[in-house]
Design a protein that fits this description.
Number of strands: 24
Strand order of the largest sheet: 6-9-10-3-11-12
Structural class: alpha/beta
GO molecular function: ATP binding; ATP hydrolysis activity
CATH superfamily of the largest domain: P-loop containing nucleotide triphosphate hydrolases
Subcellular location: Cell membrane
Pfam family, one: ABC_tran
Domain ABC transporter: 7-244, 255-498
Helix content: 25-40%
CATH class of the largest domain: Alpha Beta
Radius of gyration: 24 Å
CATH topology of the largest domain: Rossmann fold
InterPro entries: AAA+_ATPase, ABC_carbohydrate_import_ATPase, ABC_transporter-like_ATP-bd, ABC_transporter-like_CS, P-loop_NTPase
Largest sheet: 6 strands, mixed
């Protein structure tokens, strides 16, 4: 069939010092097709897309790219963009001090008499935002938006640039279920217009829902190609990692011990109101709600990042005030934040130095850091968390997302906390690394640690939590435990819907 494929990548190989990231990979894409690109972190997905987008060049003359029937090699990202190949990165590439409109059209701002035509800019931005049903004022500075809306702006940028191939890297990682549904509608509309989409995601349910085909990369090689309608999640996973993941979510079975933390009537003006709950040793308490419900704001006050307006915190049987995160650490509290790159890591430093950061006050020798201790800490958590790094001196910026998250987790576990707060701990990491982290969280709880877990993935929050707090509009709207932690009950709570007692799932 003539022009059956809008894109063919043939024999693509790409090596970096000490590693072959891509080894003779082929990829084909039809007009109006959604191709899911699957694989563990480090499998070569992003590298392959960066070759397509002109960020990297393939190693040999054997590697070829045919785009719209013509042989092309894009030597710079601007060439790929001009040709209609737009890549939206997982780690957002927005300019925080510029407006929404300026970010959408950055590099192609409308001009009039040599100056920016602000009226046209804002009008065009409103149109593209309306197209994806994103209710944001185009004049708003990006830095003032929550991360979910920033993600929508990134997607709007790709659409505004007239993408013929839109590459989406973990595009729903910060979207609510409602926003995700709207986003999927947008993808289906783009398909109808003939736009092709390459969809990179670790969320297997999304891949099954939105893609026409799934291509799997494993260790830099193409290892499988599936028509999504004719395959199963387990088949794709086995192709990705070489095994089936049994007991993917491992719920802690230990009996909870003594109460470690109790919160009574905690309030913070405009963020949350009348928050009361407790956490016991050996218990995993989940917090679930829509983005903006107040989950992160609540735990940030527990950890001293912000201060509540009123309310009491009791810890280990005593009423305490936590004025900053340093005090929280002294109380043996640990907090793994949602945004590992901005809040959890020093990307320009080594794995060893990052994993030792919180422990530094305890490992000084004669006023200097005991370097031998930092090596010991790294080695301990490298084994415990199965961190895959070339060496202790590898820069964290060079690690996959899953291994970066394990470094953040190890950094906090090094202080041997009694309370571990996890905010979206598996966001944007592959299915194998997720399983490792779930297993380790469960093990920590069984050893007596108290855990607070925030997750936007309902299967994760159901599969891991012993008890669940549903948060809506800054308030706890339901507390669930045991068999009551199910999808129907959670949806009823966060959407303020009455329960249907005739439905067995709701009882």
């Amino acid at each position: 069939m003539e022009n059956e494929y809008i894109l063919e990548m043939r024999h693509i190989t790409k090596s970096f010092p000490g590693v072959t990231a891509l080894d003779d990979v082929d990829l084909k894409l039809r007009p109006g097709e959604v191709l899911a690109l699957c694989g563990e972190n480090g499998a070569g997905k992003s590298t392959l897309m960066k070759v397509l987008a002109g960020i990297y060049q393939p190693d040999s003359d054997k590697g070829e790219i045919y785009y719209q029937g013509q042989r092309r090699i894009f030597k710079a990202p601007v060439e790929a963009k001009q040709a209609g190949i737009i890549m939206v990165f997982q780690e957002l590439s927005l300019v925080m001090d510029l407006s929404v409109a300026e970010n959408i059209y950055l590099g192609s701002l409308p001009l009039k008499h040599g100056r920016i035509d602000w009226k046209t800019l804002y009008e065009d931005a409103r149109k593209v935002l309306a197209e994806i049903k994103c209710d944001v004022d185009p004049k708003t500075p990006i830095g003032s938006l929550p991360i979910a809306q920033r993600q929508m702006v990134e997607i709007a940028r790709g659409i505004a640039l007239g993408a013929k191939i839109l590459i989406l890297d973990e595009p729903t990682s910060s979207l609510t279920d409602k926003e995700k549904d709207v986003f999927f509608e947008n993808i289906r509309e783009l398909k109808q217009k003939g736009t092709s989409v390459i969809y990179i995601s670790h969320k297997m349910d999304e891949i099954m829902e939105i893609s026409d085909r799934a291509m799997v990369l494993r260790d830099g090689k193409a290892s499988g190609d599936f028509a999504t309608a004719n395959t199963t999640i387990d088949e794709i996973i086995q192709c990705m990692i070489g095994r089936s993941i049994s007991n993917y979510y491992i719920k802690n079975k230990a009996q909870p011990g003594e109460e470690l933390l109790r919160v009574e009537g905690l309030c913070r003006e405009g963020q949350y109101e009348d928050i009361s709950f407790s956490v016991r040793r050996g218990e995993i308490v989940g917090l679930y709600g829509l983005v903006g419900a107040g989950r992160t704001e609540i735990v940030e006050s527990l950890f001293g990042i912000t201060r509540p307006s009123r309310g009491d915190i009791y810890y280990k049987g005593k009423k305490i005030q936590i004025r900053n995160s340093v005090q929280a650490v002294r109380h043996k509290m640990a907090f793994v934040p949602e945004n590992r790159k901005e809040q959890g890591l020093v990307l320009g430093e080594t794995c060893r130095k990052n994993i030792s950061l919180v422990k530094l006050p305890w490992i000084k020798k004669g006023g200097f850091v005991d370097t031998a201790k930092t090596f010991e800490i790294y080695e301990e958590y490298r084994h415990k968390l199965k961190i895959n790094a070339a060496s202790s001196e590898q820069l964290t910026a060079q690690l996959s997302g899953g291994n970066q998250q394990k470094i953040v987790l190890g950094k906090w576990l090094a202080i041997q906390p009694d309370l571990l707060i996890l905010d979206e701990p598996t966001r944007g990491i592959d299915i194998g690394a997720k399983a490792d982290i779930h297993r380790f969280i469960s093990q920590l709880a069984e050893e007596g640690m108290a855990v607070i877990l925030i997750s936007s993935e309902m299967p994760e929050i159901i599969g891991v939590s012993n008890r669940l707090l549903c948060i809506r509009d800054g308030r706890i709207c339901a507390q669930l435990s045991g068999e009551d932690i199910n999808e129907q009950r959670i949806i009823n709570a966060i959407m303020n819907q009455p329960e249907d007692r005739s439905n067995p799932a709701a009882s």
